[in-house]
Design goal:
The protein is an alpha/beta fold and 426 residues long. Helices cover 45% and strands 17% of the residues. Bound molecules: nicotinamide-adenine-dinucleotide, L-histidinol and zinc ion.
Length: 426
């Protein structure tokens, strides 16, 4: 990890930078794949799947038998764990169900707002280096609760052209309507344009690597909404001498193992934690199956000594981490001042993995500083709000003159007349 001791504010820019592929090259590739899919549909999808996933896929769509039979291929313990996580995710998201807002803004002028589900949603499930079946729960359960009619799932096939059975089981369990064996840019392109096999959707959800994230951002320019840019995982931990180095390092590694472009930042408030963290990293990293990935991510990650509370808080808000672990005595100072973060984990016994899998909160979260302007996935993301108004005769008499004056002042005569005619009729 890159070590920085009480860095000056001028140096924060470098410390808050994320590792990223060159955006121009990424965008060029996305445009090329998108154009091929728009022109050639499934043929292009299958061809890019061969190039990027090294997989020959016969039928892009998983059959009902594949979905129903997936449960036989995974252990009962895993199925029970998925159901436990699913129940918690359902509880937390169902509690977010929006209520009808109804206000009589003045006598005879009734306004209200109702919620409707987005009818057809696409959910992307990462599967490049690890089959993230937990993401199926995070996206399909809130989609179901919101009442989305079609839930289309895309995930990369393995080298044999198959989808991991835990992803299929979770999809079946969470009520996904159709599953497709396609990943990366080609998955996002397919859901953006629609192909012979894969339906076009109204909104695309889900995390992914930098290719997926760049493709989602392009989709927004082509008329398809997205949840947010949810790219390579990141974590910021803040610890004082009440924090345990062993736990902190296990959390840092949990996000570092996602990908070489993951980034973790550890801010310590006391110098004595620095050697403990460094030692723990040496202890814990070598035994991880994904140590090579985690090591690369750790190389560009940062260990920062910052002793002043206000500096720490300002740095955290500037970085806007996807995940923030807070392990300090004066936790309320940070909780009250926190402005930008995807999801927060408080105290020594709240590992970040809890939110990744089973506490109930959503793990699809904004990265790369987008926590400054985006929320993580929640029920609202699957819904639209429609506003209604009904004005009585009494109401139009009261509100009408104000509308006439405003329309006149904007030099929009037809707007004014729409009111005047009604007032004259009364
Ligand atoms: N922010 C969040 O909420 C969140 C949640 C979970 C996971 N993640 C992140 O999702 C990512 C998952 O990444 P992944 O790679 O394992 O799976 P992925 O499914 O996102 O990407 C795999 C696909 O990328 C494409 N691809 C790979 N190399 C390519 C290349 N050179 N050119 C073109 N396309 C290429 C392939 O089509 C492949 O199917 C990780 O970065 C992880 O940190 C983020
Ligand atoms: N930490 C990821 C979000 O950045 C989510 C995840 C899924 N599985 C394990 N982790
Ligand atoms: Zn994770």
């Amino acid at each position: 990890m890159i070590l920085a001791k009480n860095p000056s504010r001028q140096d924060w820019g470098k410390l808050t930078q994320r590792p990223a592929l060159k955006q121009q090259n990424l965008n060029q590739l996305v445009n090329e794949v998108f154009q091929a899919i728009r022109e050639e549909g499934d043929r292009a999808v299958l061809s890019y799947t061969k190039i990027f996933d090294k997989a020959e896929v016969e039928n892009l769509k998983a059959t009902p038998e594949e979905l129903a039979g997936a449960g036989d291929k995974i252990s009962e313990d895993l199925k029970a764990a998925i159901r436990l996580a699913g129940a918690n995710i359902e509880k937390f998201h169902r509690a977010q169900t929006p209520t009808v807002v109804e206000v009589e803004t003045m006598p005879g002028v009734k306004c209200w707002q109702e919620t409707r589900p987005i009818e057809r949603v696409g959910i992307y499930i990462p599967g490049g280096t690890a089959p993230l079946f937990s993401t199926v729960l995070m996206l399909a359960i809130p989609a179901q609760i919101s009442g989305c009619k079609d839930i289309i799932l895309c995930t990369p096939p393995d080298k044999n052209g198959q989808i991991n059975p835990a992803i299929l089981f979770a999809a079946h369990y969470a009520g996904v309507t159709q599953v497709f064996k396609v990943g990366g840019i080609q998955a996002i392109g397919s859901m953006t344009f629609g192909t012979e096999s894969i339906p076009k959707v109204h909104k695309i959800f889900g995390p992914g690597n930098q290719y997926v994230t760049a493709a989602k951002q392009r989709a927004t320019q082509l008329g398809v909404a997205i949840d947010m840019p949810a790219g390579p995982s990141e974590l910021l931990v803040l610890g004082d001498d009440t924090a345990k180095a062993e736990f902190i390092v296990s959390d840092l590694l949990s996000q570092a193992e996602h990908g070489t472009d993951s980034q973790v930042i550890c801010i310590v408030k006391t110098p004595s934690l620095i050697p403990k963290i460094q030692e723990e990293l040496l202890n814990q990293l070598p035994s991880l199956p994904r140590k090579e990935i985690a090591r690369k991510a750790i190389e560009h990650s940062k260990l920062i000594l910052m002793e002043d509370d206000q500096d720490c808080l300002d740095f955290i808000n500037e970085y806007a981490p996807e995940h923030f672990i807070l392990c300090v005595e004066n936790e309320s100072f940070y909780l009250n001042g926190l402005m930008n973060a995807g999801s927060v984990f408080i105290g020594n016994y709240t590992p970040e993995s809890a939110g990744d899998y089973a506490s109930g909160t959503n793990h699809t979260l904004p990265t790369n500083g987008f926590a400054k302007s985006f929320s993580g996935v929640n029920i609202d993301a699957f819904c639209k709000k429609i506003t209604f108004q009904k004005i009585s005769e009494e109401g139009i008499k009261r509100i009408g003159p104000a509308i006439e004056f405003m329309a006149e002042a904007e030099q929009l005569k037809a707007h004014k007349l729409a009111v005047t005619k009604r007032l004259l009729s009364l």
